Amino acid sequence: MYFVTAQEMYDTDQFAIERIGVEGKLLMENAGRAVADQIELFVSDQKRLAVLIGKGNNGGDGFVIARTLLQRGYDVEVIVCASPSEIKGDAAYHRDVFRNSGFTFTRYEDVENLGHSLKEKDVLIDALLGIGVKGAIRSPYNQLISFVNQFEGEVISVDLPSGLPADEGVKVDQAVQADRTVVIQYPKVSAFLEHTAAYYGRWEVVDIGLPSTVIQSQQSQKRVWAEQDVSNTLPIRDAFSHKGKHGKGLVIGGAVAMPGSIAMTSRAALRAGAGLLTVATVQETITALASTVVEATYTTLPSEGGYISDIGSVDFSYDAIAIGMGMGRHSEAERMIQVALEKTQGALLIDADGLYALKGNLSSLKARQNPTILTPHPGEMATLLDVSIPELLHQPFAYSKAFAEEFQVYVVLKGAFTIITTPQGHQWVTVTGNPGMAKGGSGDVLAGILLAMVMQSQTVEEALCNGTWIHGYTADLLVQHQHSTYDLLASDLIEGLAQTYRALLR
Hints:
The chain is α/β, with parallel strands linked by helices. It is built from 19 helices and 19 strands. Helix 2 crosses helix 3.
């Protein structure tokens, strides 16, 4: 499923109108009917509804929605919150169709009268403002949005909550806090941003027949990676598989005071499907891990103060290497990351402490011929970019894309919506997972899963998308059946992978 910026949505509409020949009036009819169909699935015809209609195309959709629901026997009051001269084009056409069908609407006068009109309503449909919102919300919409947010019944927004920008990097002035949003054709970028996603409430997408040709041709295309994508791309193991066919991986990290991080990464890699795994760490950590990660082999590295002090003796010919978990932030870490960048012959995944050590080695990233994968959380990504965390979260897609393209790396920006970006600038988001994952060690588990995934017979982007989806979906399964968001531990995710794989491979 693609998701789009406001401009990409406009371009798709124009393509359909100008190149394919679908009239804008028909697109609006399709949109309104599709939204009405969706509303009919969860709103009983015994409920009393009101539709608030603005001046633009979102308001035009509102006229079609109201007409369709009235024709199906719903009790619907329509309130137009714009002057007649403001309603133009296709929206004006559907206003006239609404009236010519024998239906009436009232004009918005003020909040007091609106409150009286809506006193007995159960559901409020928000068709005030669409995807073109930028800057401060002007009158009367600022008063209307405040009023809608005080409405005691259910609020359903059309396409996106009124007042909410479609894009990242745009400040929210005022926006409707919807209980549900029926999104038209494609989700908008703001549905996947931490500071704007909550305004949507629960949302679902309706298809109105717009061509995907325009979106597919965009170099900056963005998609949601869903369960069907996992099913289509996750490699199926044949009857003659052996351990060598499923990847020979290496994990470098760990310290005397932090044996757990590398233990979780290693166990997760094995449970996720790595054929062979070696752990390179200090002797004391090997002693701690040997009884819990029994399937791995071990390489002892020199240490100083309980931390790895040198990795020059490591064999870098593995299919894939993960480095950084529990490595510590000390003076030698930067040099070790430099060595790994120069010598690793396969894919190199850098996580945790390795990302802080990478800051002084960014120029070396471009010289690598094989895939380099960075798996930062927002704090680590902000450090790499020299921006604040709020700045990063305000436009995470743009920052991730710029960094991935400049340094020719894959970036897995972790969060409630994990964003996967390729060196070519293609982006995916995964939406699995829940607050139970907000625990120490969850990122270490993800690093192990991704290490295993990139060694299987799939593209790097498929591996990263599948791995992040599986990571979050496992948490969802566990919270649904065995755990709560309070007690779920990172180590539970490792054992829960069995349930996920059984569900996917059934």
